[in-house]
Amino acid sequence: MLLDRVRRTIECYHLLGKSDRLIVGVSGGVDSMVLLHLLNALRQEFSLTLIVAHISHGLRPKESEKEAELVQQESRRLGLTYEHGHFNVKEFQKLGGLSPQDGARRIRFYFLNSLLESLLEKYDANKIALGHNADDQVETVLLKLIRGTGLRGLKGMLPIREGNVIRPLLEVWREEIESFAGEVPCGLFQPA
Fold it and tell me: What domains does the chain contain, in order, with CATH numbers?
């Protein structure tokens, strides 16, 4: 069962402690929605406080609006606090002469490093949970290889970074996440 595998990852890497307060980055995609669902299932066991954080990139206005609405509705259904940030990636891209993908990537780093950090302080939270999975891990390593990294740079994402960014799904494949999402009550998750 997926919950048991994620619990083992959490225990193996000491990702959660009792009474942790987590900012959960939720894009509205299947990975982060499943992460939210799993962390909520573990909420009582670990005495967790979960705060949902969503960012809209504005790249696909109609889809972005639907994703934000989905995340907000699910947060409300679970009785969780919801925070929303909006960044205009297209404008940022033009100003910096960046591709849409590079602009979105830089905005995500900005979101992680500024907005999520401010939410940590606002809610006296101690960790940020992200929905990166095993497929993302493989992609990260392959991209580094393609870019010509040396042996020192050839590493993937860590299950815990800087002591407070955790990735509980890092040992789970996307196929497993989508399968789990398909078992959840109809309409809750919409795989991309």
Answer: 2-10+21-183 (3.40.50.620)
Instruction: Provide the pLDDT confidence category of residue 191 given band limits of 50, 70 and 90.
Output: very low
In Å, what is the CA distance from 8 to each residue of 2, 24, 41, 64? 10, 19, 14, 33
**For residue 153, what are the contacts with CB-CB under 8 A and spacing of at least 6?**
144
Q: Are 157 and 140 in contact (CB under 8 A)?
A: yes
Structure tokens at 160: 């815990």
Residue 160 bridge partners (DSSP): 166
pLDDT confidence of residue 112: 62
How do residues 146-166 score in pLDDT, each as one tens digit? 777 766 666 778 899 888 999
Closest CA to 81 of 44, 54, 103: 54
